[in-house]
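I am still getting used to backbone structure tokens and would like to learn alongside you. Label the sequence line and the structure token line clearly, so we can match residues to local backbone shapes. Go ahead whenever you are ready, and we will take it from there:
>
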Amino acid sequence: MQAYKRTGNKWSVNELLQLEREYELLELNIQDIAVKHQRTVQAILYKLEAEGFIESWNEARGLNEWRSEKKYEEDDEDDEDDEEQQLTENNNDDVSGGLSEIDNLTERVWSLETSVGEIRTMVKQMFDKMVETKTNTKKRTKLRTY
């Protein structure tokens, strides 16, 4: 059972750039990208389409494999074993879940701090550019007066 820890979280700029790099340059399929981003395959498909990397879901690399895996999972008649395994995993997650949750929160806070720092730098650069432009326009004088 795959855990999608980032379900419901907004996409950061860095994550979007990483998505573009993985899909366009590294040519990873949607399942691999979903695992890396800890999101569902549907979330990856939606974002790829929304960002214009694909025209429709049918164009996505790895879609057919994902559909066949999904169909195979739906046809699996051994539901009782799956439920027992899920209960065992949940019990194990309760023990180690506290640490991984703290690590996840720490990572998210670090990411936010980094993003805020980058935004601060950009705003400062924009402000400096605006001040520079304003002082340059004041220095200009008309050559002729009518």
Remarks:
- The first helix runs from residue 13 to 25.
